[in-house]
């Protein structure tokens, strides 16, 4: 269970640029990322008054999901690509602690923590990026209704710190399981 890749962007484009590390800021998100802020920063939500809290500070997705649809990290706007971690099976309030490898210079610094808030609703931009791709992130029941979404999860930052590729991810489950809903 590791951090496979990281990506960020200062502008509201769709894809994000791969980076080897970035800094999480508690209550805000990723330092310098266009979605960082106390209130939601997604362009489609900026008109809402009063502005809702930003539950979308960090977007995480398993590498395994990207591989299944032939995508590279950062291409659909995610910030953290994990490996060996079933993010979609986790509940609301699950804490993910990023731990450096033994002997790392980061060993003595605070361990950053994000808290899962919900799943990403595959937006129309995914279809614009690659026609047909949006449906690959939606699971439908026998009646054609949406039963699940697989475009990753959204999280807020609880503890500030640096996250780097290759860090271990420690999962801390909440006392009571509540399934992730769209945020």
TrEMBL record:
Domain MOSC: 17-172
InterPro entries documented for this protein: MoCF_Sase_C (IPR005302), MOSC_domain (IPR052716), Pyrv_Knase-like_insert_dom_sf (IPR011037)
Keyword Magnesium: no
A GO MF term: kinase activity
Keywords on record: Kinase, Pyruvate, Transferase
UniProt name for this protein: Pyruvate kinase-like protein
Organism of this sequence: Apodospora peruviana
């Amino acid at each position: 269970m590791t951090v496979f890749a990281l990506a960020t962007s200062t502008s509201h484009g769709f894809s994000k640029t791969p980076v080897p590390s970035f800094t999480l800021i508690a209550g805000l998100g990723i330092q310098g990322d266009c979605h960082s802020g106390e209130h939601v920063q997604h362009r489609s939500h900026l008109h809402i008054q009063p502005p809702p809290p930003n539950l979308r500070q960090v977007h995480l997705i398993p590498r395994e999901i990207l591989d299944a649809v032939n995508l590279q990290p950062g291409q659909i706007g995610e910030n953290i690509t994990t490996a060996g971690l079933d993010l979609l099976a986790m509940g609301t309030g699950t804490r993910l602690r990023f731990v450096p490898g033994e002997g790392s210079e980061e060993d003595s610094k605070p361990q950053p923590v994000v808290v899962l808030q919900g799943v990403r609703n595959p937006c129309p931009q995914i279809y614009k990026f690659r026609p047909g791709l949006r449906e690959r992130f939606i699971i439908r029941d026998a009646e054609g209704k949406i039963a699940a979404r697989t475009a990753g999860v959204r999280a807020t930052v609880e503890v500030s710190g640096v996250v780097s590729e290759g860090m271990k991810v420690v999962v801390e489950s909440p006392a009571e399981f509540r399934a992730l809903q769209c945020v």
